[in-house]
Amino acid sequence: MQHGKCAYCEKRDEQAKWRDAEHYRPKGHYWWLAWTWENLLFACVDCNRDCKRDQFPLVDPSARLAPEAMPPGDERPLLIDPYAPEGDPRAEIVFRRERVQGRERWKPYGTTPGGSETIRVCGLDRSGLIDLYNKHVRDFVRPALAQFETVANSEDARAIIEAWSRLCRRLDAPGQEFRALSRHAVDALAPRDLRARYRLTW
User: Fold this and answer.
1) Dmax (CA) of the chain
2) Burial code of 72-108, b = ≥16 C-beta within 10 A, e = fewer?
3) How far is CA 89 from the centre of its chain?
4) Residue 17 clears pLDDT 70, i.e. is over it
5) Which long-range contacts (CB under 8 A, 24 or more apart) does 84-87 make?
6) Residue 15's pLDDT is what?
7) Which of 57, 97, 111, 150 falls 20 to 30 Å from 17 in CA-CA distance?
8) Distance CA 10, CA 109 (A)
9) Quick one: which H or E segment has residue 113?
10) How confident is the model at residue 147 (pLDDT cuts 50, 70, 90)?
11) 68: which residues sit within 8 A by CB, 6+ positions away?
12) Model confidence, pTM
């Protein structure tokens, strides 16, 4: 279901023996949900064991579920549930381009309290991930965008729209790593006037 990617950072983990069955609501606090399907996710070791551990911040800690009560109750989690039917994590966490000592860097920022807490709890701004984000934009997003811009120089409207569609399908395919980063990078890097002229949207 997750295409072999971590539910939190979207990193693909090729070594199955290191994959963790992550409990969205930690089993240490919510022992009665330990085997509940809706509470289980795949998470990489870095997000799960090294960062999140048993953290589960709430808007109001006094509203935590009573033992054996089923979620959500009155709980309002600050940790984004990547598979909740409502909401879109991409609206709560955005990737922004920065310059650090003259070098481009992509970093996640929360646009909501839940987005900010999810970044903090899961360590989505840890240095190893920042390196992977930068590599992803450099080696995957920018070359794909360059191919699109080559077609865009032709000023052939039909070819441009088809090339844009191919770009979006390639970067936003379910099995791709860092889909949210790809979208935000393209939003920042693709010429806005060109996108407006041909009405190019995701």
Assistant:
1) 64
2) eeebebbbbbbeeeeeebbebbbbeeeeeeeeeebbb
3) 7
4) no
5) none
6) 63
7) 57
8) 16
9) helix 113-122
10) very high
11) 32
12) 0.90
SS3 of residue 114 by DSSP: helix
Q: Is the pLDDT of residue 16 over 70?
A: no
- Average pLDDT of span 173-183: 94
Amino acid found at 115: G
Q: In whole angstroms, what is the distance from residue 124 CA to residue 121 CA?
A: 8
- Would you kindly state where each structural domain of the chain is located, as residue ranges? 16-62+74-197
Say if residues 68 and 34 touch (Cβ distance below 8 Å): no
Q: How far apart are the first and last CA of the chain?
A: 23
Closest CA to 138 of 104, 102, 91, 167: 104
Q: Residue 103 pairs with which residues in a beta bridge?
A: 100
Torsion region of 176: left, alpha or beta (phi above 0 gives left; psi -120 to 50 gives alpha): beta
How far is it, in rounded angstroms, from Cα 94 to Cα 106? 10
Taking the CB of residue 4, how many other CB atoms lie within 10 A of it?
14
